[in-house]
Amino acid sequence: MNKITRLFDFPYYQLSKNNLPDCLVTKYGTSWVKTSTQEFIDKANAISRGLLRMGINKNDKIALISTNNRTEWSIMDIGILQTGAQSIPIYPTISEEDYEYILNHSESMYCFVSDQEVYDKVMSIKNNVPKLKEVFSFDTITRCKNWEELVTLGSDDSNQEEVESRKKEVLEMDLATIIYTSGTTGRPKGVMLSHKNIVSNVIDSAPRIPVKEGKARAMSFLPVCHIFERMILYIYQYHSVSIYFAESIEKISDNLKEVNPHVMSVVPRLLEKVYDKIYAKGTDLTGIKKSLFFWAVELGLKYEPYGANGWWYETKLKLARKLIFSKWKEALGGELEVMVSGSAALQPRLARVFAAAGIPVMEGYGLTETSPVISVNDMRNGLFRIGTVGKKFLM
């Protein structure tokens, strides 16, 4: 399979090249549970078959609300899209009033939630959402239908031919999702994105993120209800990158050391916190160790890509990476090769020091309405420029 025109084509494209044993990985309790590429597709098809048996038609809407990124979300997303319906991701921490508005405005028929807290919020307004038929949960919740019931409903593949027929009817210009953003005033605004909107963005962005196809691991923790992280997940599927979902922002440090990812997406505020934490540890050092730490930091703050500072700087940087910056990498799992930053402007000093440490940050720019990337930095062919968001894509 070579042609990708719809979002649900990505897992099949991955399978045609690599059946990853750890395509999607989520931590439940103390164990990381792996889902292979084939299992991903099999479960997505089961979801599609189950939804058809529940009467889902083309252009129906199904809401997804999760407090953390997890395997079930991605399976549901593909399963929904294959029926010609649309997935409606909703940010979990918004008010019950906004839940009510979005569920009514989108005319969502079903809602899948992650846990008890989200379930309680949805149920508190369910009577005010007349088109919402049922709420399912990923976690086991008393008196709430579990998403596994839908998987079981679709376990019989006798209607798989109908799923294939629905898939063929989905065109690249068809609506794929509605993403509600807070905007600046008034009610949340629904951004309508087609399959082509997002697929073209993935195809254009993918070459600018250097990863080893079929051999890389990614850590995902930014909210997948935002188009930035969601598009990144499709890029990982396209590149055959194993996706490990962090438990939470509070546990990200532990998860990084458990997973040892090669790539992850970030926001500037997180990089600020990481840098501040490392800097604070440096101030606690004494003697020669402290002097070396701040020598390395000062050196990093002068970093220019492609050896622009000359051989003497590069010689000192090589020493700094061995003595100091290697410990920075260890704190981030030890194998991190690149980070992708969005949502706000990244301070050049952070871009310099992390690049000096051997963990370059590919900064990009875009909007939900542009699905989302307009431009992103590119390390190929001498194009990486600190303090910029790279060359824009050709439209």
Question: Can you tag this structure with a few keywords?
Answer:
395 residues; eight-stranded mixed beta sheet; five-stranded parallel beta sheet
Give the gist of this structure.
This protein is of the alpha/beta class.
Give the helices and strands, then pairings.
Elements: H1 9-17, E1 24-28, E2 31-35, H2 37-53, E3 61-65, H3 71-81, E4 86-89, H4 96-106, E5 108-113, H5 116-125, E6 134-137, E7 145-146, H6 147-153, H7 160-169, E8 175-181, E9 189-194, H8 195-205, E10 217-220, H9 227-239, E11 242-245, H10 252-259, E12 263-266, H11 268-283, H12 287-300, H13 311-331, E13 338-341, H14 348-356, E14 361-366, E15 373-376
Parallel strand pairs: 1-11, 3-4, 3-5, 5-6, 6-7, 10-11, 10-12, 12-13, 13-14
Antiparallel strand pairs: 1-2, 8-9, 14-15
Helix pairs in contact: 1-2, 1-9, 2-3, 2-6, 4-5, 8-9, 12-13
As residue ranges, the low-confidence spans are none
Number of DSSP-assigned strands: 15
**Series of H and E elements:** HEEHEHEHEHEEHHEEHEHEHEHHHEHEE
Tally of helical runs: 14
Rounded mean pLDDT score: 94
> What class, by secondary structure content?
alpha/beta
